[in-house]
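Why do we care about 3D structure at all? Because function follows from shape, and shape follows, mostly, from sequence. That is the central idea of this module. The next example makes it concrete: a single protein chain, its amino acid sequence, and then its structure expressed as tokens.
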Amino acid sequence: MKAAVIGAGSWGTALAQVLALNGHNVSLWARDAKVVRGINENGYNPRYVSNALLSDNIVATTSYSDALRGAKAVVIVTPSKLLRGVGQAFCGLVADDLPIIVCSKGVEGGSGLLPVEVFEAELGGADRLAVLSGPNHAEEVIRAIPAGTVVASSSAETAAFFQDLFASDTFRVYTSSDVTGVELCAAFKNVIAIAVGIAYGIGFGDNTAAMLMTRGLAEMNRLVCACGGLPLTCLGLAGAGDLIATCTSQHSRNRRFGEMIARGGTMASWEAETSMVAEGALACKTLDVIARAHAVELPITDAVRNVVWEGGDARTLGSALINRPLTTEFYGIDGPASFEG
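And the structure:
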């Protein structure tokens, strides 16, 4: 079967490799002609995960029409800010029932739409859309190091289709019906990883990081539930699993971005140095807007936004959070230990 993978960054290349090793023919779309030549002529991506030899089943192209022609599944792996343009470019190129899975993590600026919502707005057909998310660093997945992930869709049939497409001896895939929860978790964990990076960058220790991750999980839960998602999703692979991996791993670009911000760096200097997008930096602004609309308090997200976008002093991150009014641990979350309701 032919699958089209749109986006040849680290994650797109890794997912293309997973599909290719599963025996599928993969057409990998890239913007950069040098990346296309490197993959087709030398068998590796010269810009991302360049130490990985790619399967012969992967053929790269700069043409959407070539990538999509004959494809029975489409995998979207572009930065979240490019999703709407990709969806618009697909109009007239994809059938109404062609399964599409979005593997981008973030929230669209301005609209506040989640990735699958952007594609539904442009192409329709919610039941043929899915999202994939979990603790999946591309550098490990492409080397077939065991990992797990979750595919969420409003359609059980679509979720099962992509589960079978990606599942392998080293890549375990679960399904979920909670598209909203999975996508919010995917966006949220990047913000918390930036906070952890800032904390380590200014010299705080593991206790601080553990506090930020745990309280970040509480923020995630409050927002997911307020937006109609399921609380258990926050404890699954897309929630706690991805949060742990992103906050603790040497591969985490969002944590590294936070460390750089703590040293006085900026978004511009990060992108110039790495050619990568720190999705959490973009997400913290939009998540704050969503939270305000639902009257949900997100103190860590607010603190990250203040440091990244409003010139706040990274060194005050800890005191700004610790010196907030004291409360019960699970405020805003229903439960017997909350002294609420």
